[in-house]
Design brief:
With 186 residues, the protein is α+β, with helices and mostly antiparallel strands. It is built from 5 helices and 9 strands; from the N terminus they run αααααβββββββββ. The protein has a 6-stranded antiparallel β-sheet, with no helix packed on it. Strands 6-5-8 form a 3-stranded antiparallel β-sheet, with no helix packed on it. Helix 1 crosses helix 3 and helix 2 crosses helix 4. The longest helix is centred in the N-terminal third of the chain and has 15 residues. It is elongated, with a radius of gyration of 19 Å.
Length: 186
């Protein structure tokens, strides 16, 4: 049971970060053969190996050995009842639609943007993928220098590792559905 749990979590964490076994081996100084055996649930790693892997992935060692005690296998969120998780000067309000989901591989948010709100100076860059769909209003995205204007019902998906930014150029409020993988720590 513990071997399989650790293996599943290690593989999931590695894949969420877009790393191969070989890349993780180089980052952690743990052999690729050992990582493969751990991921397949064939061996239980020593504390030293688990610490090296956790450090390379930016995780705590407890992540691998604790069974998720909190969270649910199913999260039902009624309309307009998302869990508020971020507010910025009454211009940018994010609510989670998946808060409380056990070991999620993604997060879903509704973002309410006041007129002329934007993501800030410069382009954002981080790991994973993003998907955005305009539920109300209009939003302008700039992704790797290319401008995309999204109206109600339009969507866009992209690798978050390329420079991107967004702006509500309208005098109207905009409401955006975001799907982000891997889920951010909120």
């Amino acid at each position: 049971m513990v071997k399989k749990l650790i293996g599943r979590k290690l593989k999931s964490s590695r894949l969420k970060r877009d790393k191969t076994i070989q890349e993780l081996a180089e980052m952690s100084r743990v052999s690729s053969n050992m990582i493969s055996r751990i991921e397949r649930g064939l061996t239980t790693p020593s504390v030293e190996i688990l610490m090296k892997l956790a450090d390379a992935l930016g995780l705590s060692i407890s992540y691998f050995v604790e069974e998720a005690e909190k969270g649910s296998m199913v999260v039902h969120t009624p309309a307009d009842k998302g869990e508020p998780i971020f507010f910025f000067e009454d211009k940018h309000q994010i609510s989670s639609l998946t808060q409380g989901l056990r070991d999620p591989g993604f997060s879903v948010f509704v973002d309410t943007l006041e007129p002329y709100c934007d993501s800030g100076e410069g382009g954002m860059v981080h790991t994973g993928e993003e998907f955005a769909m305009v539920l109300d209003g209009r939003l302008e995205f700039v992704i790797e220098g290319q401008t995309y204007t999204l109206d109600k019902g339009d969507s866009i998906g992209f690798k978050a590792s390329i420079p991107h930014s967004w702006r509500n150029r309208s005098d109207q409020q905009a409401k955006i559905l975001w799907v982000v993988s891997p889920p951010p720590n909120v």
